[in-house]
Every structure is written in C-alpha cells, then in structure tokens.
Amino acid sequence: MNDAPVTAVIGAGLVGSGWALVFARAGHRVRVHDPDAGTMARLLPWLEKSARELEAAGLLADAATVVGRVQPCETLQEALTGAGYVQESVFETVEAKTAASLAIDEALEGDAIVGSSSSGIPASQFTEDCRHRDRFLVAHPVNPPHLIPVVELVPAPWTDPQTMERARALMADIGQVPINLTREIDGFVLNRLQGALLNEAWALYDEGYADLADIDATISHGLGLRWSFMGPFETIDLNAPGGITDYAARLGALYHGIAMDRTQPRPWPAETVARAGEARRAALPETELAERRAWRDAMLTRLAAFKHSNGLGP
Ligand SMILES: NC(=O)c1ccc[n+]([C@@H]2O[C@H](COP(=O)([O-])OP(=O)(O)OC[C@H]3O[C@@H](n4cnc5c(N)ncnc54)[C@H](O)[C@@H]3O)[C@@H](O)[C@H]2O)c1
C-alpha cells in the first residue's frame, strides 16, 4: 500500500503547476484540479519538460517517477479525497478566492489544512465564512515555486497556531523555505521589500539620476550577487568591522537622510512607465519575452544546482 502523503493542488495555472512539481518531487501523491480544460491539458507536458530539466541539472533523480505521482482530477471533490494538505492557486481576486475557499471548505477531509498562494489578498478577506477557517492560511510562493523555495506563511486572525506550525513543518519537509508572519500586512514581507526597492528605482529613473539598464545592473552585477545567498541584515553585519551595530552607527544617519527624501510617496508616473516600456522593448522586443523567461528559468535552475552543491540549498 502506498502511504505517501496526499496533497491537493487547486488551480493549475503558472503557480499551481509549479506547486504540483514541488509536492511530487518531495514524494507526495498530488491530485490536481482546474476547471479550465486547456490548463489541465498543458499540465502533464509541462511537468514532464520541467522535471527533465531538473533531472538534467542534478536536482532530481528520476523525472518519470516524479511526474507519475501527479494525478489530474476532473472535480474538486476527487482532488480533495484523502488530501492532508490543499494548496489553492486560483485567480487573484477576492471573488475567486472566496468561491474556491468555500468549495474546498465543504469538501475538506479529516484535519486537512489549506494554504492559499495569494500574492497579496490576506486570508481574512476570503475565508471568514468557512466552517474550518481556523485551518486556512496564506502560503505565498514565488514564481516558479519549484526553482525559488521561499514561502510566506501568513495567518488570518482566526488561523489556529497549530495550522501555522503544521504548514511550516510541511513546507520545510518538502524542501521549501517557510517564512512566518505573525499577522496580516499588505504585500506580506516579500512584496514590501520588493516594493521598497522598486519605488526607489522608479524615483531615481523618473528624476533622471541613471538609466534603466544601469539601475538594473546595480542589482544584477551588484547587490543581487550577495542576495542570492544572504539577506540584507547579514549583508550589513559583514560590511562593518564591528558587525551590524557598527554598521548602524556608521551609516544609520545616511539611510535616515535617504528615507527623509521620500516622505511623500506617489504612484509610479504614467509617462515614466511609458518611457521605461520603450527602453525595455528596445532592449528586448515583446516577441522575445517568452524566450527570455525560459532563459531566466534555466539560469535559476543552474543557480539552484550551484546552491545545492555548495550546501546553500534549503
Ligand atoms: N504568477 C506569479 O508570479 C505568482 C507568484 C506567487 C503567487 N501567485 C498567486 O498564485 C495564484 C495563481 O496565480 P497564477 O499566476 O498561477 O494564475 P493563472 O491565471 O496562471 O492560474 C489560475 C488558475 O486558477 C484556475 N481557477 C480559477 N478558479 C478556480 C477554481 N474555483 N477552482 C480551481 N481552479 C480555478 C484558472 O482556471 C487558472 O488556470 C494567485 O493567487 C497569484 O496571485 C502568482
């Protein structure tokens, strides 16, 4: 008898299909449901191709076995049968998340818990009326989740602490890197950090301090090199002789001054966005966007392999 854990993946678009690979790679039996026939038709070919790429990079022993663990399901009920964990990855609207959560809630078995891939809508906005709302949380991945392991776990006010603990243990067990938030906040941690950087990048570009390519290079050939294996706190801890407190003493005033420059946030200006669009399309025509995304994923795969072989993986 196969006693591998059963996991349901509800919604099999970009992120749901990535999740299916993550759980199958970890040995789970994965039951996937999406009402869109075209999406379901693309699932297995995508899994086969992606699993082979992981195998070629030395990140997976046997691609065919991994893909064999994924079972497409016609109905939500079928997908939830026997599932101890449910990963919901439907459209990012309150309406879609509410409908999916209520339907999952109805069919939930035993003590199963439900993580939503929600990028920014907190669980309190779509799980309030669920009977088992103490077993719902946000489990926000980064795209593609099989190549970028961090997952933000965010409780609604009614999420049981045990649900959080179980989700954290599960994510660590399947090779992801769980990050716990103590309570809801717009954008969670990841997009707040990304937002702070983007807001400043737009402002510098808008004010003409540097062009788009040079601002990008500051990250890809600068800050980003360290960030692929350490965060901003560890970075500054190593960047002053006496560590983080020494760094704060030396440079705290500079950063305070920078923050005081930007006390009146405003929307990204439409004209500036249009100018950035022209610059990006001159550097990369729209017809080449898909190819460049595939290149990005190939680079991420090699980076994951490098981190893995240097003991820097999850
Ligand atoms: N794309 C990203 O970069 C990214 C990153 C992190 C998190 N997310 C989040 O993941 C979720 C899914 O995003 P995506 O990019 O995969 O979108 P997507 O449009 O590629 O896929 C969404 C899928 O959900 C399906 N769906 C809609 N209602 C459903 C229902 N009731 N039951 C089952 N399936 C249903 C749709 O048919 C579609 O295939 C969103 O909450 C999104 O914010 C996306």
Written account of the structure:
- Helices cover 52% and strands 12% of the residues.
- The chain contains 12 helices and 8 strands.
- The chain has helices spanning 14-25, 37-56, 63-68, 76-80, 94-107, 161-173, 190-206, 212-227, 232-238, 244-261, 270-283, 289-309, and strands spanning 6-10, 29-33, 70-72, 85-88, 113-116, 136-141, 150-155, 177-180.
- It has an 8-stranded mixed β-sheet, sandwiched between helices.
- The chain is globular and about 55 Å long.
- The structure holds nicotinamide-adenine-dinucleotide.
- Nicotinamide-adenine-dinucleotide binds next to helix 1, helix 5 and strand 6.
- Nicotinamide-adenine-dinucleotide binds at residues 10-16, 33-36, 39, 89-92, 96, 99-100, 117-119, 140-143.
